[in-house]
Amino acid sequence: xxxxxxxxxxxxxxxxxxxxxxxxxxxxxxxxxxxxxxxxxxxxxxxxxxxxxxxxxxxxxxxxxxxxxxxxxxxxxxxxxxxxxxxxxxxxxxxxxxxxxxxxxxxxxxxxxxxxxxxxxxxxxxxxxxxxxxxxxxxxxxxxxxxxxxxxxxxxxxxxxxxxxxxxxxxxxxxxxxxxxxxxxxxxxxxxxxxxxxxxxxxxxxxxxxxxxxxxxxxxxxxxxxxxxxxxxxxxxxxxxxxxxxxxxxxxxxxxxxxxxxxxxxxxxxxxxxxxxxxxxxxxxxxxxxxxxxxxxxxxxxxxxxxxxxxxxxxxxxxxxxx
Length: 323
Hints:
The protein is of the alpha/beta class. It has 12 helices and 18 strands. Helix content is 30%, strand content 28%. A hairpin with a 5-residue loop joins strand 5 and strand 6.
C-alpha cells in the first residue's frame, strides 16, 4: 500500500509498504482523510521525544472500517488500561502509552492498524475532513479541563493558529469568554470569518483587563510571562504548547506565581472520552470548523504540506487519501 514514510529526520519518502495484519483486538481502517499538524511537521524537521523511526506519521485520522461502510475517528493512544493513570481516566498519561504516528505507524498511508477500543463513530452528517479535527479539539478540551475553566470565566489564548482557534471554540461551548492574541496580521485575516461567526474577539494585543485563565497555543517562550502577567490573582496558566530551547524560567514569573497565588498546569494530548466529546461539537459547528481547512492535498504532496505547516503559512491542511 502507498505510504509516506519518515525514514530519518528530514527525510520523507513515498513507499509501498505491506498492509498490516490485524491481531486480537485490532482492526484495519481504510484512511479517508488525515490532517497535518505542527507536531507532525516538527517530528519531520527535528524529531520528538516519543518518535521511533522509521515511521508513518499522522494521528488526526478519519477512516472506514474494512468490510463495512462505518466511519470512525481514532483516539491515537494505546494505553495499558491497568495503571493508576488509566484507572483514574487519565489514560493520556499512561507510562506504557503507544501513540499513533509516533511509536506506531499512523494515518499517512492507505490503511492503518488501530486498536478496536480506539475507534469512535463519526456522526452521519459530519464530513471526513472536519472529523479529522476531533483530536486537536479534544486536546483543547483537555487543556481547559486542567485549568478548571468554567462558564463566565475569561480566557486569554496566546496564539491564533488552528489550535488557538479550536481552544476558543471549546471555551465558547463551555460558556467562557475567550480572547486571542495573535501578532501576525495574516493569521488574523485568515481566521476572521471563523471568529466572526463564533463571536470570538482577537487582536495583536489585548487591553481587555485580567483573565481567569491563560493558555499558550504557540511555542514562543515569551508567552509564559505574557500570560502570567495578565492573570487575575489565583488565576491559572496552562502550558499547552511545549517550549523549545534551554532558557531559564523567568524570576519575574516565579514571583508573580508566588505573590498572587497563581496556578500553573500542564496539558498533554487527550483522552478517548475527550475525543468522543469533540465530535458533537464539530457536528454542530461544521460550517465554521471547515473554514480552518485551507488546503486539501494528495498523499504525494505531504512533504510540501508539512513545510507549509512548519512555516506557519496555513491554518490547517488535510491529506485526501482518496484523491
